[in-house]
Specification:
Blueprint: E1 7-11, H1 19-31, E2 40-46, E3 53-58, H2 61-69, E4 73-77, E5 80-88, H3 95-98, E6 102-106, H4 117-124, E7 129-133, E8 138-143, H5 145-157, H6 165-168, H7 188-208, E9 219-221
Antiparallel strand pairs: 1-3, 1-5, 2-3, 4-5, 6-8, 7-8, 7-9
Length: 243
């Protein structure tokens, strides 16, 4: 990884010269003080980008700034002269190293497939965590920046999921409806179990509404291996990781 402040990018290089020879010519050119150069740490030919360029890292950042400020650099190779362009090199940031964790709140009532859409979403993105917050009747996706972004992209591109409510003939789930994320594909039997579980939960909520014990049911982990929609026994806001 090139060090910021000491590395420059040189473009406009000849393409018919072997790498080692080209590196030697670049080293000599940018080592000379008359070209604004100085002591060099490394010369790397970068073929990842088109056209080919080179990354030159100096020992002193002031030398790097000096060669950048020079208006013209002419590289001489086998009696041929090539005018090259020197610019400051900036590393591409890795989003996952800058944004360590990302959470997204999803209103499943806006999705054609309702909350059941999250079942297929988790199967495609097992590295993210999916929670249900009963206090606001919304779902929370949590994980690394890139994985949550990928999951959200899938959610928006295929909001109905592989088995939408319309296709399955079942009522569409809303943001307040509970759903268990399972590792196996949904069958008619599993859908019946989900509806039964929902009915039981609604009855429990009617009985226990307003009691302090409701705090233990406000957040539930939807990932496989979790306790689903039963009382987890965890404090409010606690997350259970799927197996």
């Amino acid at each position: 990884m090139a060090e910021p402040g000491r590395t420059v990018r040189v473009s406009g290089l000849p393409t018919d010269i072997v790498d080692e020879k080209l590196k030697d010519k670049l080293f000599i050119h940018f080592l000379r003080s008359r070209n604004g150069g100085g002591d060099i740490d490394s010369v790397i030919i970068d073929k990842a980008n088109t056209p080919v360029s080179a990354l030159i890292t100096f020992e002193d950042s002031r030398v790097a700034q000096r060669v950048i400020q020079r208006s013209r650099h002419v590289l001489e190779v086998d009696t041929k002269k090539y005018e090259v362009i020197v610019t400051e090199h900036r590393e591409t940031l890795d989003p996952d190293k800058v944004i360590l964790k990302l959470s997204a709140t999803v209103d499943c009532s806006e999705l054609p497939g309702g909350a059941l859409t999250l079942t297929s979403l988790y199967k495609s993105h097992p590295d993210i965590q999916i929670y249900y917050d009963a206090t606001v009747e919304l779902y929370i996706l949590h994980g690394t920046y890139s994985k949550v972004q990928d999951a959200l992209a899938q959610l928006l591109s295929d909001p109905g999921g592989p088995q939408s409510a319309e296709d399955s003939g079942q009522p569409a789930a809303t943001g307040s409806t509970s759903v268990q994320i399972a590792q196996e594909p949904h069958t008619q039997e599993s859908e019946d179990q989900i509806r039964k579980s929902n009915q039981q939960r609604e009855q429990r909520e009617k009985v226990y509404t307003g009691r302090p014990s409701d705090e233990y049911n406000s957040h539930r982990d939807l990932t496989p291996g979790g306790f689903g929609w039963e009382d987890t026994g965890q404090p409010e806001g606690a997350a259970l990781h799927g197996s």
